[in-house]
Amino acid sequence: MQLGVKLSAKPNNLDSIIGLLEVKLTLVGKRIEDLANLPQGSDPAKQAALRILSFMVTVAYGAAPQLLPLIVFKQVILSVKYGNYPESLHAYTVYGLILCGVVGEIEDGYKFGQLALKMLEQFNKPELKSKVLEPFNDFIHHWKAPVKETLPSLLEAYKSGLETGIVEETACAAQTYCGYSYLVGSELSGL
User: Fold this and answer.
1) At what angle do helices 86-98 and 126-135 cross, to 10 degrees?
2) In the chain, pLDDT over 70 holds for what percent of residues?
3) Residue 100 CB partners (closer than 8 Å, separation 6+)
4) How far apart are CA 166 and CA 175, in angstroms?
5) Is the pLDDT reported for residue 151 higher than 90?
6) Fewest 10 Å CB contacts: which of 72, 102, 116, 141?
7) What are the b/e assignments for 16-37, b being 16+ CB within 10 Å?
8) For residue 3, what pLDDT is reported?
9) Nearest partner of 68 among 45, 35, 91, judged by Cα
10) How far is CA 76 from CA 20, 93, 109, in A?
11) Residue 186: Cβ within 10 Å count
């Protein structure tokens, strides 16, 4: 709570619905594409909160899945209210995958993925590449394009992750690349 972020100790579906509504209220009157034009955040406390929440996303995915959307919702709200930070890019991507895969809002989810991709160029931080490319191509891109089109970008996420030491996304990119390659007809022994 010292950083101004409070999460439910025992999250449930109602918490997720309320969190989603809070994000949607925060976004009222804003176009997704325009979020790239928000000022770059400068508050060290807000960045610390975003950074801690980013670390929590991976843990929550495996240990407390109902907490994951709440974490991402808080990150998106912080970013929209206080400006974009490097950690905002991963949050926008994961929010996009929640919209696509859970809520069924494919168009807006895809726009959030595209937003994060566009912002990669703005921040120009190599360590962000795999944290955006992997979830975008694993969970969002295939809703609007053939799975085969995700393969070059997944390979790029894998290579970028190896270069920057981003272990989770590197492993996920490799796994997804192999799985999708097999699905589109690549020889299994070569994968």
Assistant:
1) 0
2) 98
3) 106, 109, 110, 113, 139, 140, 143
4) 15
5) yes
6) 102
7) beebbeebeebeeeeebeebbe
8) 67
9) 91
10) 10, 10, 13
11) 15
Distances (CA, A) of 163 to 5, 118, 132, 167, 172: 32, 21, 15, 10, 15
Report the C-alpha gap between 101 and 109 in whole angstroms: 9
Distance CA 96, CA 76 (A): 11
Query: Of 128, 103, 108, which is closest to residue 30 (Cα–Cα)?
Result: 108
CA distance 85 to 75: 10
Q: Which two tokens stand for residue 177?
A: 């690349």
Report helix, strand or coil for 3.
coil
Give 2's Cβ-side CA count (13 Å radius). Answer: 4
pLDDT, tens digit (0-9, with 9 covering 90-100), for 69-113:
999 999 999 999 999 999 999 999 999 999 999 999 999 999 999
* pLDDT tens-place string over residues 41-50: 999 999 999 9
Separation of alpha carbons 22 and 87, rounded Å: 19
- The position carrying tokens 């089109």 is 149
**Measured between alpha carbons, how far apart are the two ends of the chain, in Å?**
46
Contact 160, 126 (CB under 8 A): yes
Q: State the alpha helices, DSSP H only, in 83-150.
A: 86-98, 106-123, 126-135
